[in-house]
Write a structure and sequence with these properties.
Elements lengths: L2 H6 L7 H4 L4 H4 L4 H6 L18 H18 L5
C-alpha cells in the first residue's frame, strides 16, 4: 500500500479516548500521520485537546468565526 493510501485509510476518531471527548465533532480526531508514526496507537501525546489552552466555548467560537471568514473571503453564501 502506498503512503498516501495508508495515511487516508487510518480512522482518526475510532478510539475510546476520542469517542469520549467533548471536541470530537470539531477536531475529527488526531492527525492520521501521528497515528501512523505511533504504530496505530492513539495516545494522549497526539491528542489536540492537550495543546488547547482555552475554554471549549471560546474554542468553538473561534473555529466558527474562522470558518465564516474563510467562506466570506471565498465568496460563498448559504
Amino acid at each position: 500500500m502506498d503512503l498516501i493510501s495508508k495515511r487516508l485509510s487510518v480512522a482518526t476518531f475510532e478510539h475510546d479516548e476520542c469517542l469520549k471527548c467533548k471536541i470530537l465533532p470539531v477536531c475529527m480526531g488526531p492527525c492520521s500521520q501521528k497515528i501512523l508514526e505511533n504504530n496505530g496507537n492513539c495516545t494522549k501525546g497526539i491528542c489536540s485537546l492537550g495543546s488547547i489552552d482555552t475554554k471549549l466555548s471560546d474554542y468553538l467560537f473561534i473555529d466558527f468565526f474562522v470558518k465564516s471568514m474563510v467562506k466570506e473571503c471565498n465568496g460563498f453564501d448559504d
